[in-house]
Amino acid sequence: MRSLALVLVSIIVLACPISSARAEQEVVGGSPVPSGRWPDAVAVLMRDGFCTGTLIAPDVVITAGHCIDAGPLEVIVDTIDHGRAGGQRIRVAWARAYPNWPRRYDIGVLMLDEPARAKPRKVTSACTARELLVRGRRVEIVGFGLATAQGLDSNTRLHQATVPVTDPTCTLDPACEPSVAPHGEFMAGGHGADSCFGDSGGPVYVATNEGMSLIGVVSRGLALPAAPCGNGGVYVRVDKVIAWVQSVTGRKLERTTCEGRGDEFELDGDGGCAAGSGVGGYAALVLLLCAWLLHRRDRLKSTISAVQP
After folding, report:
1. pLDDT reading at 40 higher than 90
2. d(Cα 146, Cα 239) in Å, to the nearest integer?
């Protein structure tokens, strides 16, 4: 599973930097991020490795569940190079992964010791995600990960890449997690544009009427022996874990609006809620209508019986 390998390789890179002529090149098909472009994309530092995360509340960072296992210690907010001085360094007060994340949502949250100065990123509501997550939709992946398809450089800079959504429901590849399919994850990228080792937990942004919003979190890739990066990746839908994040952190996240429609929630199977609607909601409505009609019929029968001689 490449999600665990992402952290392990980042540990190796920090311990044994590898010289590379492409150390300053793109994050597998992307480009270096200019200063101030994504101040909410944060570097998540462990004792011997790193991941990426996104500031979604003044003192809350969302990242990958497998990054929590590595013991995050500190984040750097509003930096484009975690290997140099700059940005706001904040200690991690506590970290928590989504329950049973290897078989559910590869998501984790970090509570910071103090609020960050950067503005938190708005997350997409369920209705926004359903509308925008279609095949071919262009999304932006951002992270501090390695920059070559072989994953053999020593990059510390923040990079970005624009990639298309290839499977909006994440049902076409064995890398998709069956327990949350369809619609719990999505796939994007490929053909040389992809997230890589160290991008784990990083943001996937999508353009909305309210600006660039967080729609996904980097989880894992579709690795090949010759090129572990560049073949596309699997991303967790953020709208599916909003209720859980708010529950464990006590923070209310700012979400995109739904143009007059309420943002529905349904049970996610883990005792929390997840945004969504669909066939289940319509079935419940039909059952309710049938019950009302039967009740009306019984009342009518009773009335007729009462007035008959």
Report:
1. yes
2. 27
Cβ-Cβ contacts under 8 Å for 189 (sequence gap 6 or more): 29, 141, 161, 163, 164, 166, 195, 231, 232, 233
Please, how many CA atoms are within 13 Å of residue 309, restricted to the half-sphere of its CB? 0
pLDDT digits (tens, 9 = 90+) for 283-294: 443 444 444 444
| Whether the Cβ atoms of residue 103 and residue 207 lie closer than 8 Å to each other | no
Query: What whole-number distance in Å separates Cα of residue 272 and Cα of residue 32?
Result: 38
271-281 confidence digits (pLDDT tens): 444 434 343 44
Q: How far apart are CA 162 and CA 185, in angstroms?
A: 18
Name the 3-class secondary structure at 259: coil
Band (226; pLDDT cuts 50, 70, 90): low
Q: Which CATH architecture has domain 2-249?
A: Beta Barrel (2.40)
